[in-house]
Design a protein that fits this description.
mainly alpha, 87% helix, rod-shaped
């Protein structure tokens, strides 16, 4: 029973670390794209966000809140994965 649980836990930790890496890459790429868009400020982006009545400052504020929330969720998930990895390490001793 312990070997099966340890094998499943090892798979969960591996999947968790892969997910954290994918999230980090996605966050970095989307942040770089956001910086590029905020530098160029094309009009079509304002229309995609809801029309010309939206200011660039408001769009920047919303995006920063989104990235902040995304980082907090990623941090909580990474902490869970670290806990599982430490538990796996102790379980395999």
């Amino acid at each position: 029973m312990d070997e099966i649980f340890e094998k499943r836990l090892r798979a969960a930790v591996g999947a968790g670390w892969r997910t954290v890496v994918i999230w980090a890459v996605l966050l970095t790429v989307s942040w770089l794209f956001f910086l590029l868009v905020m530098h160029a400020r094309p009009e079509w982006v304002r229309y995609l966000w809801g029309g010309s009545g939206l200011s660039w400052e408001k769009m920047q504020e919303v995006a920063i809140w989104f990235y902040g929330a995304f980082k907090i969720v990623m941090l909580v998930f990474a902490m869970i994965v670290v806990f599982l990895a430490l538990w796996l390490r102790r379980l395999s001793r």
